[in-house]
Amino acid sequence: MSVHHAISEHSRRQNQQIEAFLQLDRKREQSIEEALDLCRRGEPFSVAEINRVTAEINERAKKGIIPTRRMVTEQMIRDFAAAPGKP
């Protein structure tokens, strides 16, 4: 394998990791927003989907260049939803 080909392949794999991270991070943020909305309306909510996506992000982060994300608790959602000045 030529050096040029190896570098191109490495760059392609890194780009795939970044793209996957961006998709997962968007999904995580959407799940957080949905939980916040339910919480603000006083309806039951779950952080299971948020943390499922978070776990996938963190597993991928072990293998590459993407950042990790914190797991989310129900209390974190309640606290953020109750914070003054938050939409």
TrEMBL record:
Q: Which superkingdom?
A: Bacteria
Fetch the InterPro entries from UniProt: DUF2533 (IPR019688)
Protein name according to UniProt: DUF2533 family protein
Q: Which organism is it from?
A: Paenibacillus aurantius
